[in-house]
Each structure stands twice: as C-alpha cells, then as structure tokens.
Amino acid sequence: MSYQRKTTDAYILLTNYGYGWEEELEETSYKEIKQRAMEYLANTYAQIKILKRRVKKGDIA
Hints:
The protein is of the alpha+beta class.
C-alpha cells in the first residue's frame, strides 16, 4: 500500500486596506491564486499576500 495524503493545499489571498490583513478568497492551485492576485493589484490599492495552508481533504470548499 502506498501512502495517501490526508490533506490538500489551499492558497489564501490576503489583503490589507490599512485596517489589518483579511482573507479575501481561497483557491486550490497556485496558478489560479496568482491570477486573482494580479486582478486585485490592477483594480485596488490594497497590499496583497498569498498564504499556503494545508486543510483536510473533506474541508475544502
């Protein structure tokens, strides 16, 4: 039997409009979150961070 991973990676887009960091959205691939970050940068003045988090496979939206 091979090992089956019980978690999956979730990428969170964090924004800061001057009032602290807030989670805006969550994607399952880095390519998708990077594209959303570029869209946010083009349309807003907020600071942006990408956070990688591991979640249980059943918990991802």
